[in-house]
Every structure is written in structure tokens, then in C-alpha cells.
Design goal:
9 helices; globular; 305 residues; mainly alpha; 3-stranded antiparallel beta sheet
Length: 305
């Protein structure tokens, strides 16, 4: 899911073409890595595809009086912007420069041995995901397949809400609480997972510290998140994190967005399983051909004797 995209995304900043000389052809300028490095060494501006700050999918005052415009101006306009700006500086001229945001997150997480770009990349993604998890007039109860899964995996909608609120309120210090759709898989390189159905996958509630998100774990598909860094709620709720969490679930959460993400996760799982099956068939065919060739060579050697 491309929640933060290169320069084709909506942005509050000026396009690079605004700084080109009059009459210079508009459009995207592309330089080779070698040319880009030369430009940088010469002290000129390096023009490359950069991540840009996306605005929330609603006006900054749309969530009032529940979440104030002041909070959005501070949280999105300052904190989120800083993560994006810092990320662009960190990846400039590195091997991460042309990667997607999701790839940067996974690569820089480095299986827990976190590399410098991780925090800004993950926080940029997390905040886009958070803004899109809310809407004006949100809250209430989920419906459809999402509600059926919640009742199956948590026992009831009430028990699900209690578990999510508990995870968010007990996350020590800064971090996030998530609802994710977890694939039932053995996360072992040489393991062949048994045939499964949708019933083998399930909804889970998890909490993560600082910038960590479920993208860094194999087979977890994030569906919903709440930001429990203090700057997310202090203007409106001071230090009353439980009140903020309750209001988020009761009046802000967009169940439409969560349901849409669930369907996307299911489709991705099916696509991934088809690709894995194709690879298994190719490996089996290659192995069979190699065995047949060895058997043929052995017979030829015996005939020669």
C-alpha cells in the first residue's frame, strides 16, 4: 500500500519545476547515479524523486471537536513533516534512495538491528496510516466480514474493543497499538506450510514501541492503528491517554478503511500463495530434470564400460 509516495503525490510544497529557468521544459528530470553524484559534488541541487508530506484525507478541522485543528497542525504539520524531511536527507545518495517506503522500512529494520533510516521511514508511514484510520463521523460498530472475524477471533466486539484499548493504554512510553490480519504460517525458510483456508488466518491486537510497525514482521497485515505518542493527544487530553483512546474508538475510527484494508490483505495473501506454489512447482521440475540427467549419465558410463 503506497501511503507515502514519491513526487507524484499531493504535497504542500512547491514542485521542483517551479525553480527552473523560464522556458525550460517541464516534467521529471532523470539523472544517472553517476550524474547525480557529480551534481552533488559540484554543490548544485540534486533533483531526484523524493518522498513528500501527504495531507490527511480531510481538512485539518474536520475532526473537531474530538481532535482539534491545533492538534492536527502540530502533529501533522510539525512532527510528520519532520519525519519526512529527515528521511529524505538520510537516504539521499544511498542505496535506499530509489526504494519504496515499505522496502526502506523492512531493510532498515534489519531484523531488529535497526539502521539509521528506520525511525523516520517507519514514522512517516505510520502517520499516513493513522490519518487514514480516522474520519469525520467515525466510530460506532464495524460490520460485514470484519465484524464476523472480530466475533470469531475475540469472542465479541466488546471483548475486541477492550483488548485494543488495553494494548494502547499499557504501551509503555511512546508507541502504537495495532489491529493486524495475521497469516498462519511457519516463518522458517525451508518449511512447506500445509494447505490453509481463510479460517487459518486471524485478527490480532499488537502494540509496538517507538516507530516499529507490523510491516517488519512476516505475515502481519496492518488494518488499524492508534498513535499513543504523547504529542498525538496532549493538546486535547493532556496526560489522559485512556480518554483519548476511548474517544478514538467511539467517534473517530474509520471502519470503512479497516474493512477495505482487510480485503486487500486477503487478496495479497492469495496472490502470495499462488506465487509460492509456482516457485515450488518450478523447483520440483528443476530437481526432477537434474535427477534424470544424472541417471542418464550413469547409464552412459555403464555402457561405455
Amino acid at each position: 500500500m503506497n501511503l507515502l509516495s514519491p513526487s507524484t503525490a499531493a504535497s504542500t510544497s512547491l514542485s521542483p519545476s517551479a525553480f527552473l529557468p523560464h522556458g525550460f521544459p517541464s516534467g521529471t528530470l532523470k539523472f544517472s547515479k553517476k550524474e547525480s553524484r557529480c551534481i552533488k559534488k559540484a554543490g548544485c541541487t540534486k533533483i531526484t524523486a523524493k518522498f513528500e508530506l501527504k495531507p490527511p484525507p480531510y481538512p485539518l478541522n474536520a475532526l473537531e471537536p474530538i481532535m482539534s485543528e491545533e492538534t492536527l497542525e502540530y502533529h501533522w504539520g510539525k512532527h510528520h513533516r519532520t519525519y519526512v524531511d529527515n528521511l529524505n536527507r538520510q537516504i539521499d545518495g544511498t542505496d535506499l534512495d530509489e526504494k519504496s517506503l515499505e522496502d526502506i522500512i523492512v531493510i532498515s529494520y534489519n531484523k531488529g538491528d535497526i539502521l539509521p533510516a528506520f525511525n523516520n521511514a517507519a514514522q512517516a508511514w505510520n502517520h499516513d496510516f493513522f490519518w487514514e484510520s480516522m474520519k469525520h463521523g467515525g466510530g460506532g460498530r464495524p460490520s460485514g466480514d470484519l465484524l464476523k472475524l472480530i466475533e470469531r477471533d475475540f469472542g465479541s466486539c466488546e471483548k475486541f474493543l477492550d483488548e485494543f484499548k488495553t494494548a494502547a493504554s499499557t504501551q509503555f512510553g511512546s508507541g502504537w497499538a495495532w489491529v493486524a490480519y495475521k497469516e498462519s504460517r511457519l516463518d522458517v525458510g525451508n518449511a512447506v506450510n500445509p494447505l490453509r483456508s481463510d479460517e487459518d488466518n486471524k485478527l490480532v491486537v499488537v502494540k509496538t514501541p517507538n516507530a516499529v510497525n507490523p510491516l517488519v514482521w512476516n505475515y502481519y497485515h496492518p488494518l488499524l492503528t492508534i498513535d499513543v505518542w504523547e504529542h498525538a493527544y496532549y493538546i486535547d487530553f493532556q496526560n489522559r491517554r485512556p480518554d483519548y483512546i476511548s474517544v478514538f474508538m467511539d467517534k473517530l475510527v474509520s471502519w470503512d478503511a479497516v474493512s477495505s484494508r482487510l480485503e486487500q490483505a486477503k487478496a495479497l495473501i492469495v496472490e502470495r500463495e499462488r506465487e509460492n506454489e509456482r516457485k515450488r512447482r518450478e523447483e520440483k521440475l528443476t530437481s526432477s530434470e537434474a535427477t534424470a540427467e544424472i541417471y542418464s549419465d550413469n547409464n552412459a558410463d555403464l555402457d561405455a564400460e
